[in-house]
Amino acid sequence: DALDTAETLKAQFPRLVIEASGGISKDTLSQYFSPHIDIISLGYLTQHYAAVDFSLKIVGETELGNGEAQGATLGPDAAASRRDFAF
Known about the structure:
Elements: H1 2-12, E1 19-21, E2 39-41, H2 44-47, H3 61-64, E3 68-69, E4 72-73, H4 78-81
Parallel strand pairs: 1-2
Antiparallel strand pairs: 3-4
GO molecular function: nicotinate-nucleotide diphosphorylase (carboxylating) activity
GO cellular component, one term: cytoplasm
Family: Belongs to the NadC/ModD family.
């Protein structure tokens, strides 16, 4: 059982940070509340929603060809802004 294992590990290694993860839902969350478990991770928070692609695709100059990159037309100042990534 996770609580017994966490208690045993904390007794041997008091500074150890213990995370409970996997198979934990909002219905079983309270079963993991313990002074021996420091972190509880729930995949449930993200598993029931559609994913959104926030990826950044960088196209090299040789891939631009006729001014189109993966179907998107580049504007007149594309060459100047292509390297201007503000993070």
